Each structure stands twice: as C-alpha cells, then as structure tokens.
Here is the input.
Amino acid sequence: MRSLHGDTSGAIAAMRMAEQSAGDPESLAWCAVHLGDEILNSGKRAEAEHEFDRALFAFPNYHLALAGKARARIAAGDMDGAVDFYRRAQERVPLPDVAIALGNLYVRLGRNDEAQRQYDLVEFIERSGTAGVGTYSRQMAVFWADRGIKLDEALAIARRERASRADIYTSDALAWCLYKKGELAEAKSSIEEAMRLGTRDAGINYHAGMIYQALGDHRRAAQYLNLALKINPMFDVLQAEVARQTLQTLTA
Here is the structure.
C-alpha cells in the first residue's frame, strides 16, 4: 500500500521487515524480489541487484528473482546479461511478461526474428487462456497497444478489466489503449484516475506524458516524461526511448 501512495522509502522499510520475518526460503525469496524492485525504482541499482542475488541464494533458480536480475542488468546497461537472465526465468516458468520483455530486448538488439518468436509465444499463452477475463488480460491489452496492433480488441479487454476491478493499473491500461485509439478526452480521464494515489511508477507517468503531449499540454507532458525517466531511465527498453525522443522534441 505504501508504494501505491508514492511512499517508496516506507515501502522499502515495510518489505525489509517482511523479509526478516519470512519463515521459509521461498517466502524470503519472494520478499527479496519485491524489495529489490522497490529499491530499483528508487534508483539504487546495485543495492537492488543484491536483493535479487539474495533471493537466488535462498531459493535457487527462482523465476521471479531471475527476472529481477534481468531488470537490474538492463538498468546497468548490460543487455546481453539481461537476455541471459530472462531466458533462464522463461525456462523455469514461461510467463507473458517475461516473453514480452525478452522480445523487446531482442528488438533493441536488432535480433528481430528472435523477438518475433517471443511475441508469438505471448500470443500462444493468450490463446491458451481466456484473454477477456484471464490473469494476463491487462498485460495483453498493454502489449497490443504498445505494438499498435489489435487495438479494438485491446480496448475492449481494457474496458472489461476496468469494469471488474478499479485499481490504478487497470485505469492506466485503459488510458493507454484509449490513447492509441485516439480517444484522448477519455484517455485523459482514465490516466488521471490512474495517478490519483501519487504512485511512483515510471510506466504510468510515461503514459500520462504521452497523453498530455497528444492533447497539446506540453508543460505537463514534459513534467511526466521527465518523472518517468527519473524513476527508471530504462523502465522499458523500447518505450523509454520513445519517452526520451518525445521529451527532446518538447524541450527543443
């Protein structure tokens, strides 16, 4: 709850307490991964990576910790290392968020055939479940919106998700899909709903910046894009570059 309200230091302190009271190796590893992500969000990459290492020491080959290591390697600029850790995480448990992240890394590295195989895997996981109401519905909607494909389906899923659960991340996903469809007034309303708690999240701030840029509010667009990149300069290996380029245009 603390991180949702933008209290990163409070969230880190609370997660440290949870980590210290963990009763078994897997619980300790879970806490260490979430603590690592909070620390990474505060800009302390080396300290975050220490927590991911701690998780792997406590619970070897833990897929969430391997993915955390990949995120830390990206923050360090080590894209090849990130690929290795994401691949190891995927070998343990093939989750769509890992396939998306790995596919995006391959695009960044110019390995487009390998990227497409990862994106095909994402689609396969979606078809194997029920995208309309399933666990990964929101991820699929954002994935399609990021790539500019299946936008009608993405928006329909995001609307259904928003109707069933009114959390900030669902509002953010709906805002992004609306933006991609050019429905800017509703996108603005949804992104303001997503930001209502002051959550320190690079992705939400990036989406806000792009929406305000499209609305012509360049001051607020630059404010939110700056904040997204300050929180995590590599929050997404592809979208972060879009944020930088847009910000350069706004401040030129």
User: Anything to note?
Assistant: The first helix runs from residue 8 to 20. DSSP finds 14 helices and no strands in the chain.
